[in-house]
Amino acid sequence: MKVPASTYRLQIRSSFTLFDAAATVPYLKSLGVDWVYLSPILTAEHGSDHGYDVTDPSLVDPERGGPEGLRALSEAARAQGMGVLVDIVPNHVGVASPAQNPWWWSLLQEGRGSPYAEAFDVDWDFGAGRIRIPVLGSDDDLDVLEVADGELRYYDHRFPLAEGSCSDGDSARAVHDRQHYELVSWRRADSELNYRRFFAVNTLAGIRVEDPWVFDQAHAEVKRWFDDGLADGLRVDHPDGLADPSGYLRRLKDISGGAYVLVEKILEPGEELPPEMSCEGTTGYDALADLDRLFVDPAGEAGLDALDARLRSGEPADYAAMILGTKRAVADGMLRSEILRLARLVPASANLSELVAADALAQVIAAFPVYRTYLPTGEDVLREACAAAARQRPDLADVLDVLLPLLLKPETELGQRFQQTSGMVMAKGVEDTAFYRYTRLGTLTEVGADPSHFSLDPEEFHRRLAERQASLPLSMTTLTTHDTKRSEDTRARISVIAELPDEWAATLDALRGLAPVPDGPFENLLWQAVIGAWPASRERLQTYAEKAAREAANSTTWTDPDEKFEARVKAAVDAAFDDARVTTAIEDFVARTNAFAASNSLSLKLLQLTMPGVPDVYQGTEFRDRSLADPDNRRAVDFQRRETALAVLDAGTLPADFRDEAAKLLATSRALRLRRDRPELFQGYRPVFASGPASDHLVAFDRGEDSTGAGGTPGALTLATRLPSGLERAGGWRDTAVELSTSMRDELTGRTHGPGPVPVAGIFQQYPVALLAPVIGDNA
What CDD domains is this protein classified in (predicted)? Predict the structure, then answer.
C-alpha cells in the first residue's frame, strides 16, 4: 500500500478543473506536497461547486475536466513522483434535477418496476406505492403543473411520465395522479417523506450500496481509476450514513487493491475508530480539535462564562442541556420523517403505538453521545443512551425497556436503520444548530469538537499525540477543510480572546451599543466572526451573518425568516463598514491581537504538519486565510501568487507584496519538504519539555525513531509558542531553555543550535516556531 507523506486538498469544479489542477502540480511539488487530494470528481449536478451531489457515478464530470482531465492530472502527478487521493460519495446521489440522474429518472418513471428501484431507500408502502417529491410551494400548486414534450413540468422542474399515463385531453393534474411519484409541498418533507436523504437535504437521496449490484455499478468508475493506475487512495464521505460501513470499506479495499483509505468520521472525545473498519484513519477533525484547544487559555474560561451568562440574562449556557434540546427539536422537526420510519418498523408484538414509539426513539437518539454505533461495537453506548433517555423521560422507561432489545439487533431493519439515523440527528442538532448557539468562544465550535471542552494542557496533548502515533499513525491531520466553520487563521485570532476575556467583553459591549442585535449570544458569535475574518468584504460577512442566524434558529430560521431580526443583523454588519466608530472598535481589537494571532497561526501550522499522522493542507492555506463557513471557504485560490512567493522565498529574498504571507509559507514549505525528503526523522514521538520560568508556553516534540524512550535516535524537533499574550505579560522567555542532544539546524532560519541547553529566546529570535533537524554527519 502506498502511503502519502502529506496531501493538499484541491476543490475541483468548472472554474478550476482537473486540467487546472494538473497545471498546479509543479508548484505543489515545490511546496513539498506528496499527494494531490481531489474533491469529488464524478458527474454532479450542473454548476455544483462542491461535487457531493453526484448524478452519474459512471463518469468523471465533464464540467470538471472529464476522464481526460483526470488522466492529465494523474500523469502530471506521476511525473513529479506524487500520488493522487480522491474524495468519493457512497451514501447519496443528487436528485435536484431528475433528468440529470439516470437512476432517479428511471425510478420516477417506472416506480417499483425500475431496475434501480432497489438502489434507493424508499418506503413504498408508506407512500401508497408512490415516492413523494417535496418541490411544490404548496399543495395547491398542483394546479399549475403542465405536460410538455412528454414530461410533467412544474416551473423549471422536469419529471418523467410513466408509460401510458398521458392521453390527449388529460389535465396535468390527472396525469400527475397516475405517476409513480407524488409532488408535494416542501413543508411536508419534515414528516411525510418516504425516501432516505443525506441529513435533511431533500435533493440528496440515499442509495443502498450494501447491495452488491448497487455497489458494483456505483463504483465501476472508481475501480477503473485503480485498474488504470490513475489514483492511489480514497477519502470516503459520510460513512456513518451507510447501512454497513465496515462491509462497505472491505469491498472498497478489494476493488482498489488494498489502497490507502480515509473516512470522514467524527470521533467524539474519548471515542475510537471502530476496529472493524478497514481504513487507515479519519480525515482529521479529531486532530484539529486537540490542536485548537492547546492554544486556548484555561484562565479565560471563567471570564467568558461570566460574559455568556450576562448575554443570556442568567446562567451561562449548559451545553449538555442545549444539545439534548436541539437534537430533540431536529428529531421532532426536520428529521421527523426518519423517526417515523423507524417507528413503523417496530413490530406489532411490541404493543406500542407509532407515536409512542417515535417519542421514545427520538429521545434515545437525542441522548446519544456519539454519532452512531456499529453493532456489536458500541452496544454499551446504545444501552447508556436508553438509560439516559429513561432518566430524562421517566414516563418512557417501560417503552424503552421494550425497544432496547429490538435496537440491539443489527440484523433487523429497525436495528440497522436506527444506526443510520442517529448520526443525522447529531449532525443537524449539534454541528448545524447548537454550534451557532453555544457562542462563548468560536474556536471551540468546530466540526468534530465538543465545545464544553475548553482547553487542553501540554501534558494531555502529548499523551494524545503519543496514542495517535501508536494506534493511527496514517490517519489524516488537518486545520481547515471545505466543511470547517472557520478557517485555521480565523480561529487562531479568535483563540486570543481566551487570553484577553475582559478586553473582549469591553469591545463586545461597545459593538453591541453601537450596532445592537436583539440576541446577545448571537452578537457574541457574530462579532467574534467579524474580528476573526477581518479584513473581509461586506458581502462575505453578510452571507455569513445570515447563515449563522438561521442555523442558530433562535431568532430566525431558514424556513420562516424573521425579516425584522435579519434587518437588524444586516444593519450591524453594514455598520462595520459604514460607521467609523464600529470600524475603529473592530480594528483596534484586531491590532491588539494581531501579533498573538500570527504566533498562534504559525504554531498551529507547524505542529499539525509535523505531528503524528498524514498532514493535509487545504487549498491556499499556505498563505494566511481568514475564511468563514461555506461557501466562504471555497473561494478561488490565486496559485500564481503563491508560486511566485515561494520562488522568491527560496531565492532568499521577499518583496513587500508577500511579507505578510512569508512566515506561514516558509513554515509550510519547510515542514512539508522535510517530511517528504527525510521520512526517517518522523518515525516516533517523544514529548520535549523546556526548563525555566516560561516553560508552560513552549510545546515541543521529537519525531525521531524509537524516540518514545531515552536514548532514541533524534528526529525532527518541533518547537512552538502557546498562549503568546500571557507570555508577553510574563516578560517573555527570559532564561527558559531546551536541551538538545546533538547539533540541529533550524529549517526555517538556517541557524544551528546545540548540543546542550539552548535558550528558547535564541531559537525564537525570528519566528515563534522552529523546526530543527539533526545536522547530517554530526556525531556530537
Answer: AmyAc_MTSase
